[in-house]
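In this supplementary section we document a worked example of the pipeline. Step one takes a protein sequence of length 338 as its only input; no multiple sequence alignment statistics are reported here. Step two produces a three-dimensional model, which step three serialises into structure tokens for compact storage. The input and output of this example are shown verbatim.
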Amino acid sequence: MHSRQLSACLLRFGTGLTLSVGGNILGEMKFGVFLPISGKAAAPGTLKQAAQMAEALGYDSVWAADRIVIPWEIRTPYPYGEDETFIVPPDRPFLEPLSCLAFLAGCTEGILLGLSVLVMPYRHPLYWAKVATTLDHLSRGRLILGVGVGWMLEEFQALGVPFRERGKLSDEQLEVISLLWEKERPRFEGRYYRFGEVAFYPKPFQKPRIPIWVGGEGVRAQIRAARYGDAWFPYFVRVTPRELRRRFDDVRKRAAQEGRDPDAIHLACCLPIKLSLERVPQEEDRLHGSPEQIIEKLAAYRDIGVEHVALQFMVPRWPDRLGEIERFGREVLPALKP
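The serialised model returned by step three reads:
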């Protein structure tokens, strides 16, 4: 299809034409971008500039990753890199994400503020629930709370958190969070967390709660999303739309088994992207190419039900990455948004 025809088709999707996939109505897909909270560019001025530019260009969200410490020696394979090597050297800054999003809440007007993803076992749930709820109020309801269980054994060891129990810890935390946000006098008696009746105010600004997007790609993450999540939010380095839809269908089936409405769980994802000046040979499981090729690829993800994509531009140097973010905003977004 010619790029102009494709753009016109995509614009029709955003102006009233809808598709139904597995019970979900497909409308406009939303787009976010990861901000440089790590590396040499991690600084207040850079973050403010990047977030305000993203908002002005029409991005729907900005995203921050989570890291507390980076061990000098990491033997755990990094699941989100093609060579399985963690991408941030230990001697580079890595800012705390909740603090960064609180800062950005005051620098922006309406763009959503996303966390991808909060590693739940690293913090006590009473603490991070309070920070997240505060951030939700400071931003007037703009927080998207991506959550996950973590992957780096050495970081768990440094923090004194049992790595092998991280899944059970996280599930219990999500039970605690629901009580804190919903009950007037929440109390909890679990395997890892115990507390008597406490007051937890304010409740979230967003109603009925801050949206919880459950990260992770495997079966256990799918079960967690089906049981606790408002969205399944995987990060795939390489995945075809067809395979992503197959796994989301599994999430929906598990939600029904849990007694939940499958249509109440949405599909969002993180995807790495490389925007090129010219057309390049295409691979079905990689988001790489010219603006026209990227438009066509992203249309395929929307057609299988993806509602929100957090884009990680893979250019190493921040000035070059900023250029790609701006170029995507000017050349790709107008074809995908009304």
